Amino acid sequence: AGIGKCVAMDLARRNARTILACRSRARGQAAVEEIRAASGNPAVVLRLLDTSSLASVRAFARAVLREEPRLDVLVNNAGVTGLPFNITSEGLEETFTTNYLGPFLLTNLLLG
């Protein structure tokens, strides 16, 4: 939703292979179908990613590096605010991990 969906739509309209990295399979798949229909680009795909989980970030990066021949653009758009204080299963504060640590790790892993 929001800015991320708009950016994905623009990339798809430019005929880019576009990977939507979403926490929710249902919401992500709905966005994929909407973007494919609006852009006419069938190369819009969904991959699950939860940036509050470093294990999820690592798994996503491994899959992208294994499956994609190249990566030209990365848009780090995930973010949360106003969540109650919570510690993840990895022992990290959830908001900080979602907004900073997860995207930082993802970027560094995808750099190769």
Question: How does this model look, in words?
Answer:
Helices cover 52% and strands 9% of the residues. The chain has 112 residues and is mostly helical.
Supply database-style keywords.
112 residues; mainly alpha; Rossmann fold; 4 helices
What is CATH's topology name?
Rossmann fold
Average pLDDT works out at 96
Number of helices: 4
The CATH class is Alpha Beta
Uncertain runs with pLDDT below 50, 5 residues or more? none
- Proper CATH architecture: 3-Layer(aba) Sandwich
The Rg value, from CA coordinates, equals 14 Å
First-last Cα distance: 29 Å
- The amount of helix comes to 40-55%
> What class, by secondary structure content?
mainly alpha
Strand content: 5-15%
User: What would the principal axes of the Cα set say about the shape?
Assistant: globular
The CATH superfamily is known as: NAD(P)-binding Rossmann-like Domain
Taking the sheet with the most strands, its summary is: 2 strands, parallel
Number of individual domains: 1
One letter per element, helices H and strands E, the order comes to HEHEHH
Number of strands: 2
Q: Give the strand line-up of the largest sheet.
A: 1-2
Protein name: DHR13 reductase
InterPro entries: NAD(P)-bd_dom_sf, SDR_fam
Family: Belongs to the short-chain dehydrogenases/reductases (SDR) family.
Keywords: Oxidoreductase
Task: Give the structure's gist in a few sentences.
The protein is built from four helices and two strands.
